Amino acid sequence: MMIMGGRFLQLVYALLILLHMQTSVGFNSTTGGENEIRCIESERQALLAFKQSLVDEYGSLSSWGSEEEKKECCKWEGVECSNITGHVIVLTLSVVRGNLNPSLFKLQHLTFLDFSWNDFNLSHIPESIGSLNKLQHLNLRHCNLSGSIPNQLANLTSLQHLDLSHNNFNIKNLEWLSPLSYLQFLDMSEIDLSKVNNYLPEVINKLPHLTILYLYACNLPYILPQSIPMINTSTSLATLDLSFNNLSASTSQWLSKFNKSLVSLYLSDNSFQGLIPENLGHMTYLETLDLSGNQFGGIPKSFGNLCKLRYLALSHNNLVGMLPELISNLSGCLQLSLEELILGENKIKGPLPDMIKNFMSLRQLDFDNNQLNGSLPKSIGLLSKLECRDWIPPFQLDDIKLVLCKLGPKFPRWLKTQINFSYLDISGTGISDNIPKWFWNLSSWAFHVNLSSNDLYGVLPNLSTTKFADSFGLEIDLSKNKLEGPLPIFPVNITLINLSENSFSGSISSLCTITSGNLVFLDVSHNQLSKKLPRCMTRWTSLVVLNLANNHLFGKIPSSIGSLSCLESLGLQNNNFSGEIPWALGSCSALQFLGLNYNSFSGMIPTWIGERLSSLTFLLLRSNNFSGDIPLQLCWLTNIMLLDLSNNNLSRSIPWCIHNLTALAQKENSARDHSFPIRIDADPKNNGRYADKASVMWKGMERDYGNGNLKNLRIIDLSSNKLTGEIPVQISVLFELVQLNLSRNQLAGRIPSDIGQMRQLESLDLSQNQLSGHLPGSMSQLNFLSTLNLSYNNFSGRIPLSTQMQSFNASAFVGNPSLCGLPLTPTCPGDEKSGSEPTDSGGKDNQEDSSEFWKSFKPGMELGAAIGFVGVLAVKLDHPWKHLCFLLFNNMRVRLNNLKDCLYLLGTAVGLVVREHVSRLGRKLKLFEPSVSS
C-alpha cells in the first residue's frame, strides 16, 4: 500500500510539473499572463503594410496598431495566432475596401483566410498568393476582384475550401485547379467560365475528394460527349449546382459517372430539351433533383426507381400529355420517399388521378398553371402529410399579422404577390425553409418585418441593397431561427435588429455600416459571434438595448461605449471579455440592467457604479475575477432588485449600509420594462415591451428568466467570495427579499435576531461559513421558506420549532456538531432528564410544562405533515380537492404564494386541532398533575 501511495504521489507531482510547464511556456494565449505568446514582428509589419492599402470607413481595423495594443497583433480584430508558435494563422476582414497588397502574403503560416464581402476595387489576385502553401480555407466571395486567376494558386496544395464566387474574373483555363487534390468545397458561381469549355469535366475528375461544387450562373456551354475523358471519376461528389447555365442533354453522360455519389443535383434554367435523359433515373442516391426552367417534354419511367428522392422539381418546362400517364411513370419505390413534387407552369392536361393517393409521404404538391380539369378525387384526403398549399390572393395587404398561424413548413409563396405591405409578422408559423431571395425585394414601404420563432436556415444576403433598405425606421426580427454565416450588412437607417438565438458567426464589424444614429435596439445574443468589439459604437447614440450575451466575444470593452447615453440595458454575459470595467460606462446613466457575469473581468468593483448609475435595477457580476471590498457606494442603488456579486474574489465585510437598498424593502416594483412603439418578438404577453433576460441562481439551480419574470425576483447573492466579518443586522429590514445567499465565505458571528422579519424569504443559504451561536427563534416565522442551507458552520443549541424548519432535510443543518433537535436529532441534551420538550424558539430554551403535552403535539404534527404530503400528491394528480385548500383560506388575511404554502398551512391547522383534542383528553384522564405548593 505504501508503494502504491508513493507512486500515486509521484504521478500527481509529475502532472503538477506538466501543468506548471504549460502555464510558464504560455501555451494558453488567452490567460493574459506575462509569458503568453506575442506576435512576430515581421508579421505585424506585414499586417500594417496591408492596412495602408485599405480604406476602413467603419472602424473594423481600429485595433490594428493602436497605442493600447501596438505590439499585440495577435489581439487585433480578425487576427488569430498559433498559441504555440505565435505565427498568424487566421485572418478575417469585413466591410473594408481598397487593394490586395502583396505584403499580405508574407504571412506564410496562414491556414484560414476569409475576405468575403469586401470591396477590392476590381484589383487582381497577386501572384504571391502561391506562397501561402499551408492555406486550407480561402474565401474571396463577393470581393469585387477581377483579372485572371494566377497559376500560382496551384501551389496551395493544402486547400480544402475555396470560394471565388461572385467576382469579375476572366478565366481562360482551369489548369491551376488540378493540383488541389485535397479540395472538398469549390464555389465559382457567377463567374464567366464560357472560355474553359471542355476542360471543366477533365479538371473535376482530378479532384478525388471534392464533395460540394457550385457553378451557378457561370455561362457554361454544352458539354460534348467526346470531351469526357475515359478515366476513373471522383466518387465523392455529393452536391452539384449547375443551374442557370447553357447546358444541354449531352451533359447527362458526364453526370452519370457520379451515379453512386450524387445526393443533390441542380440543373434548373439551362438549355435541356426533349425527354429527360434516362440515365438520370439511375442515380439511386439522389435526394434532391431540380430540373425546372428547361424544355423537357416527358418523365422517364426510370424515375420510379429513385428510392431516396425526396424533392423533384419540373416546373417551367414543356411537359405535355395527360397527368395520369406522367404520374404513372413515377410509380415504384419513389412513391414511398417523395415529399415534394413540383410540376407547375407546364402544359399538362387531364384530371388529377386517383393514384396520387399512393404518394403517402407528400408534403407539397404543385400543379399550378397547367390545363387540368375535372374534380378533385376524394382520395386526396388520404395525403395526411400534405402541408404546402399554393395560393394567389386577389388583394394587396398593408398589414400582415399571422402570428402563430400554421404557414409552414415551406416559406409561403403567396407572399411574393404582396408588394405594398408596411407591417409583416409571420412569427411562430412553423416555417422550416430558406428565406427566398425575392422576399427581400417585395416592399419598399415595410417598416416592421418579424420572422422570429421559426426554423429558418441559410445565410442572409446584403440587406443594404434590398428594397427594404428604402424603408424609414426599418425593424427586423429574425430571432429564434437557425440562420448562420456572418452578420449581414444592414441599411444605414435601421432602427431595430433582433438576430438572437441563431448560429451567426464571425465579427460584428458589419454593424458599423449603421451610421444614421437611429438604431434603438440591437440583440445578437445566443449566437457564435467572436472577435473584439469594434469602436464604431459612437454612431449608435440612440441605442436603448444592447444585448451581446452568450457568444464568444473577447477583449476589453472599448471606451466608446460611453457614448451610448440612452442605453438602458447592456447584456455582455457569457463571453470572454477581460480587463476592468471602463470608466466611460458611467456615462450611461440611464442603465437599468447591467449583465457582465460569466466573463474574465478583473480589478475592483468601481465605486462609480453606485455614484453614477442610480437607475440600476439588475446588477450581475457573477463569475469574474473582481477583487477588493464591496464598495459602500453600491448602497446608493436604491432601485436594485437583483444584486449578484457571487463567485469572485471579494473580501472584507458586507457593507453595513445594505439596508439602503430600499427596493428590497418595499412591495412596489421599481423594475420597468423597456418600451418600444411596436412589438419586437413573438410572445404576445410582452405587449410591445422588451423584458431583460438573464441566467440566475435560484434556490441552488441556474435558471433562465425572461419575458417579464426577472423583475419579479428580489435577490442578493454574495456567495463564493472571501467576505469576513458579521452579517449586518440592518439586513433584516429588507422585508421583500426573496432569496439571500451568503454561502462559501468566511463570515463569523450570529444570524441577526430579527431575521424573522424577512417574511418573504423563500431561499436562505448561509452554508460553509464560520457563523456561530443559537439559531434565532424568529426563524420560525419564515413561513414561505422552501430552501434552507445552514450546513458547515458552528451553530449550537436547539433548532427552532415550526412547520417549515422541521420540513427540511437534515442535510440543511449538517456540519454543526452542537446543533440539536429535529430534523437532526429527536431531542437535545438534557431533555431526557427534565422530561420536557420544546415548542417554538429553541434558541431561548423555552420548554413546555409537561412532557405529555409535547407527546400529544407530535401525532398532530405528523398527521398535518401527512395531509400536506397527500395534498402535494393531489396537486400532481390534478385532484379536484386541491381547490379546497384555497377555498378554506380564501377569507383569511394570509399571503399564499402558491399551493404548497397553502397545503403547509392546512397541515399545520389540522395538527393544532389534533393536538388540542389530545391535550384535553389528557387533562380529563389527569395525565397532567397540577403542582401543589406546600
UniProtKB/TrEMBL annotation:
Keywords (A to Z) from UniProt: Cell membrane, Glycoprotein, Leucine-rich repeat, Membrane, Receptor, Repeat, Signal, Transmembrane, Transmembrane helix
InterPro entries (UniProt xref): Leu-rich_rpt, Leu-rich_rpt_typical-subtyp, LRR_dom_sf, LRR_N_plant-typ, RLP23-like
Region (Disordered): 825-851
GO cellular component: plasma membrane
Domain Leucine-rich repeat-containing N-terminal plant-type: 41-82
Signal peptide: 1-26
Gene3D superfamilies: Ribonuclease Inhibitor
Annotated membrane topology: Single-pass type I membrane protein
Pfam families the UniProt entry points to: LRR_1, LRR_6, LRR_8, LRRNT_2
Subcellular location: Cell membrane
Family listed: Belongs to the RLP family.
Protein name in UniProt: Leucine-rich repeat-containing N-terminal plant-type domain-containing protein
Source species of the chain: Rubroshorea leprosula
